[in-house]
Design a protein that fits this description.
Number of strands: 26
Largest sheet: 18 strands, mixed
Number of helices: 4
Mean pLDDT: 86
Distance between the termini: 14 Å
Low-confidence stretches: 1-22, 95-100, 310-323
Oligomer: single chain
Structural class: alpha/beta
């Protein structure tokens, strides 16, 4: 009987209070600057952090993990085939590529399929790396990561907002969007893809260190040609922009266009084919596929979002009453 009471107690606690996570709520994807659930094709750009692609990866003039000094895992993981001409994996300058002491580190590549590395006129690889493994066992399950990301995106997309965004229009009919919230832990806003696709300014006013979840509905979305502001300072010039606490959740999008923009925060778009043609992102980029020349900076998501609604005060009172009842029952049993 005591065991039954204990299990009831634990069930009540766990069903009402989310567990604190030591790792990213994005799962294994949280460790990667770009985590793509299909194919990736990029040229003339770089990712400051590690990259993983479930499908094939095609690169031309590409640098990966260029700002990663210490990393126990492979900096590039490809589930399918890799085709790469000109580039590098790891943290080092061109001048230091032969003298990898101190912070300099060539990176590791792990490919589930086959790798084709371009050659120069002398027959040497045009990609600099430390190790390359082909036909290798992957360090994690892409399909498991995909299921987790899709589940989280759907779950978070259905959370109730904590505040309502405001918007006005400028002289060109574009939207000036403001997200203003005062919760020190979590602020949730809902936006429509049409609104954000026609924005000219995106202002954020929430306590520093609080998690900001922006749920964006709509199957086709774009982030193009507007600036992000925090405390009325544009992100490009604001060293205190809380990039690592911001998550844009495109929970319905099947297509996403990013161009001419510096995105401040992480993007979760697990169903979206993404064209990133210009600019850069300060955060994780998670998408179904990725094509283009966009640059990723390794400001990984560190926020926390509940996986179910936070209990209302009345629910807490009910839980307290239930626990008191359990305690009384145990006392009667002992007597």
């Amino acid at each position: 009987m005591k065991g039954v009471i204990l299990r009831v107690f634990l069930f009540l606690c766990l069903s009402l209070f989310p567990l604190s996570a030591g790792a990213s709520q994005l799962g294994v994807a949280g460790d990667y600057n770009e985590f793509i659930l299909g194919d990736i094709s990029q040229s003339g750009t770089d990712s400051w952090g590690p990259v993983a692609a479930m499908g094939n990866a095609t690169y031309l003039d590409m640098s990966i993990a260029s700002q990663i000094k210490v990393n126990p895992q492979p900096e590039l993981v490809v589930g399918g085939n890799l085709n790469w001409t000109n580039g590098s994996v790891g943290y080092f300058t061109k001048e230091d590529s032969g003298n990898l002491t101190g912070d300099n580190k060539k990176g590791d590549i792990l490919v589930g399929g086959q790798a084709t590395i371009g050659k120069d006129a002398g027959g040497y690889d045009t990609v600099t790396y430390r190790s390359l493994k082909q036909g290798a066992a992957l360090p994690f399950s892409f399909s498991g990561a995909q299921a987790h990301l899709q589940d989280m995106s759907t779950l978070w997309g259905n959370l109730s907002p904590t505040a309502v965004p405001t918007s006005t229009t400028d002289q060109f009919g574009k939207f000036l969007i403001t997200l203003s919230g005062n919760n020190k832990d979590l602020n949730i806003f809902n936006l429509n893809a049409n609104l954000i696709s026609n924005a000219s300014k995106f202002s954020i006013d929430v306590p520093f260190g609080s998690t900001l979840l922006v749920n964006i509905s709509g199957t086709a979305a774009s982030l193009q040609n507007f600036g992000f502001f925090y405390d009325d300072i544009q992100g490009d010039y604001n060293p205190n922009f809380p990039d690592q606490y911001i998550l844009y959740n495109f929970f319905e999008a099947t297509s996403l266009a990013i161009a001419g923009i510096e995105v401040h925060g992480s993007i979760l778009a697990p169903w979206a084919d993404t064209l990133f043609s210009n600019g850069h992102i300060e955060g994780n980029l998670i998408a179904k596929s990725l094509f283009g020349t966009g640059e990723a900076h390794n400001e990984l998501f560190e926020g926390w979002v509940p996986v179910k609604p936070v209990p209302e005060p009345a629910t807490l009172i009910l839980l307290g009453s239930g626990l008191m009842g359990i305690a009384a029952l145990r006392r009667r049993m002992k007597s």
